Here is the input.
Amino acid sequence: MALINIKNREVQIKIVYYGPGRGGKTTNLEYINKTYRKQIKTEMVSLKTQDDRTLFFDFLPFDVGQIKGFDVTIQLYTVPGQVKYNATRKLVLRGVDGVVFVADVQKEQRKKNIESLNQLYENLKTYNLDLFKIPFVMQYNKIDLKNSDIPIIPSKIMQKDLNSLIKAPAFEASALKGGNVILTLKKIISMTLASIQDQIF
Amino acid sequence: MFTENQLKAIDSVIHTNLMEAGIDHVIFMDMAGNTIAKHDNGKNRLDSIAFAALAAGNFAAVDAMAKLVGESEFSLLFHKGEKSSIHFSKASDDTLLITMFNKDISLGLVRLKAGEAIEQINEILSNE
Ligand SMILES: Nc1nc2c(ncn2[C@@H]2O[C@H](COP(=O)(O)OP(=O)(O)O)[C@@H](O)[C@H]2O)c(=O)[nH]1
Ligand SMILES: [Mg+2]
Here is the structure.
């Protein structure tokens, strides 16, 4: 649930990047952090293991400026992707307003994408949230691998696997190179703002 | 959503119960990591946005651990440092009151004051 502070005219919104381990969630936030350094008041917080994997979450607060007289801050989080960390993934989803699903287009990750999406559905349900109703954007990441020897899944198949029912806006992206990272972010922000419109504006 | 009057009343409760008792920082927040009210004594800076996110995560993790060992909750969550300490109290199912204080103030006093503040805040939030 977005926090709307009438007195200070502030809105805080929580957006979570979800997806299978090593799909590129942290890399998305790192790119955003680099690109919008000026709008970000604090350091990015990353709780990670010794071998650089997300342990709990990454956190990046992001000012989008004034909307209709309200100062809007977007709090971006990632979840830890490793299978064994589902308890922590659930904690990070608490109070979420919008979700970006970062899927990995590598052929060998096909099953993991589907499993992760199914688990997202279940995890949201524990908070009485419906994946089919909340603001949701799909990202097919590592599209740059098209030009490598690594086999990738065509976006048509990705759509069929992950998005045939939800029909969320979907973007091919390369978090590493920055391709469509900002577009993904802008889309989820505008959808999330639209969903809380009636509460404030 | 909190009304403007509720937010003002919460500010005043935090001010009289906690800030005037000499506590350095107080954050009243929701479990998602959003700050509802924050106060500081102006002496030392704190990145309260990042702090709130970490505090929510920390509290949620400890809460989940309590459930695993069959406790409904661990009522006291307290981190003691050399110069300053942090005290967490659950104010309701959805809110958390966090106080940071220096070594001149006893934990006992903080617990007492935080308890009183929470009672008053919940009272404010129960009448629309
Ligand atoms: N080729 C390629 N590699 C990527 C891309 N995004 C992330 N990676 C790599 O994938 C690995 C895992 O990324 P990370 O962001 O830590 O994944 P997370 O577990 O979802 O947070 C890292 O080695 C990244 O450099 C991308 O768009 N293209
Ligand atoms: Mg990560």
Notes: The interface with chain B takes residues 1-8, 12, 14, 41-43, 45, 47, 56-57, 59, 61, 73, 75, 77, 87-88, 91-92, 94-96, 199 of chain A (CB under 8 Å).
